[in-house]
Amino acid sequence: MSSPGSQLRRNPAGGSGARLLAQMGIALYALFASFVIIRSLLLSIGIADNLWVGGVIYGITDPFAAVLKIFPGGDFELVGRLTLADLTLLAGIVAVPAAIVARRPEY
Length: 107
What we know:
Number of domains: 1
Strand order of the largest sheet: 1-2
Order of helices and strands: HHEEH
Radius of gyration: 21 Å
Structural class: mainly alpha
Distance between the termini: 46 Å
């Protein structure tokens, strides 16, 4: 027989898979948010995509901005090369945590 210490113990609170999924979602959101924030900074100061940092960041985030540039006024430049579509991406990044905090249940 096996000793009691060698058996796997279950998490009494349960939900360890859900916690891992939530942590992975937060990490992916933070990674995407950092790319969008860096994109906004690079566009506002006019960094072109022929520099390596511009090529990497723009290459990752261009598909998301291209979807928003389809709408009328999406390609309107505000500051430097920062367009309304890029500003909308940035606003979306800010809106997600605000919505999570607003929906937090009271204890």
